[in-house]
Amino acid sequence: MDVEYSTMESKVIRPLKQLVCFGWEQALSCLFPVVIFASLALTKIIPLPILPRYDWLLIICILMQWWMVRSGLETRDELKVITLFHLIGLALELFKTHMGSWSYPEEGYFKILGVPLYSGFMYASVASFLCQAWRRLKVELIKWPSFWVVVPLAAAIYLNFFTHHYWIDIRWWLSGLVIIVFWQSWVTYEVNGTRYRMPISLSFVLIGFFIWIAENIATFFGAWEYPNQAEAWSLVHLGKVSSWLLLVIVSFLIVATLKLVKDRRD
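RE: above sequence
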């Protein structure tokens, strides 16, 4: 009987425990995005006085970022990475709103060319998640491609978000190139002392899909607005998964490259 129970525990209970632990670590890594989503929901339901909603969201994001560094949840090096993402995201937002891809229809004092400054924190929160998960799960990269391949690839993916408005959209070519470049690459991570591994490309797809789900939540609470959502909210087109997938790849490549460079210096 003891043998049967032990066998059942090893086959069912332990994997379940590992899954719960993995989910908990992921949830802790998502602290910054969760605060943003909660703030979007609360400020939509309960209007705050004195300042427009977008400005309150900016204040909340700044305070949250300060607290995470102050409490030690994020290091100063991670703050540098997150700041870089804020700037990259803000540049993309300025261009995309100018091209009419989406808009921020509400009022706000802290807006640049129609883009509220809090929007950069939504991109920064993705970087925060990657940095937190990297540290909590003790992520390691296996057969990571050369710096001279990774950096131009990330730059090409990012630039395509701009150039496809004037030239052909090469996102599918870039996606195919990602599969080729990372065909032999794996990411390993640790849960309760046990290491697991996953193909890098699969991790890109999973993160991109969950960010698409998060995007639907964000647009529902008025974080921004697509043209087809002007009259009433509707589900974000599934095709946006490809955009988020590529943006996740850029995010992951930047974080991975910076961490590898730092490890070599140390």
